[in-house]
Task: structure prediction
Amino acid sequence: MIVGIETTAHTFGVGVVKNGKVLANVKDMYKPLDGGIIPNKSAEHHKLVAQQIWDEALSKAGCSDSDIEAIAVSNAPGLAPCLHAGLNFAKMKATKLGVPIVPVNHCIAHLEIGQSVGASDPVLLYASGANTQVIAYSSGKYRVFGETLDLGVGNFIDTFGRHVGIPFPAGPVLEGKAKNGKYIPDLPYSIKGMDVSFSGMQTKLKQLYEKGVSVENLAFSMQETAFAMLVEAAERALAHTGKKELVLGGGVACNARLQEMCRMMCEERGAKMFCPAREFLVDNGWMIAYTGEILFNSGIKNKPNGVEIDARERTDQVIVKWK
Ligand code: ATP
Ligand code: FE2
Result:
């Protein structure tokens, strides 16, 4: 069995995998009282809950210490204090158990789990709080075909939510409000090549809110506009690479309207859409364990003190030796 630990941002998660199967996926999320994530506070949270989440995951998986072959940990990219908390915990466990550590890039894990739902060589639309990227494999690396030039789409949605009095995470609440909204055509649609940007739309949303436009109408129009940009970028990547599969990842991909728009685009161009279950779309330990197992089976493993964090590692810096 491989145990995976996720701690790049607000979630402390532990997952257990064997031959690609989910044996356990347990997590606890740091929730700021107001405003955004404070990295040190989130790291404190992770240290506090680590042992308990570990115990719960191992007991759910029916996994004893001697079953553990390696510990996978998301050492990049993310918030440095949070990454440190996770890596230190992983090193402590690996040393105690005498097993190696497998470092896993968080963004790549979102893509790799596409295989668990049937994808083989997909384009990933990774739409989370901090990240918004379109990623696909090409000659030895995962390449970023397009990305946000400013905010991640989830942060963009959460910031607008905060402005209108909806606490973090605002995405699910605004999705509900959008159901009663109508389209207003005034929001800037901003895509350049395969890159998107949200700051212009953010300013416009605030202005329209101050003018008295309802949150419902703003939520609906925001979703239609922002998601159309993401779908367009994903479609360009499919066209450019000639790939026939789209995988969704990241918390924003929980949004039913985004899923619907992606499905329509895929149907129109004869591609297949794959969407992991909600608990695997958001940050979780299982996706790290799943990816860790693939890397481990290809011979990637380190001594516990041979792994460091890399808060800014980019998806295309990772040499993909396992494909
Ligand atoms: P990463 O570290 O991968 O960037 P993250 O921690 O920033 O991840 P996730 O846990 O993947 O983010 O997702 C959280 C984000 O998803 C929040 O911004 C939240 O508002 C958004 N979100 C969750 N559900 C929905 C939804 N139904 N509609 C829109 N956004 C959603
Ligand atoms: Fe993530």
Observations:
- Residues 2-110+280-317 form a domain with the Nucleotidyltransferase; domain 5 fold (CATH 3.30.420.40).
- The pocket of fe (ii) ion (ligand 2) is lined by residues 106, 110, 128, 250, 283 (CB under 6 Å).
- The longest strand covers residues 21-29.
- The two ends are 21 Å apart (CA to CA).
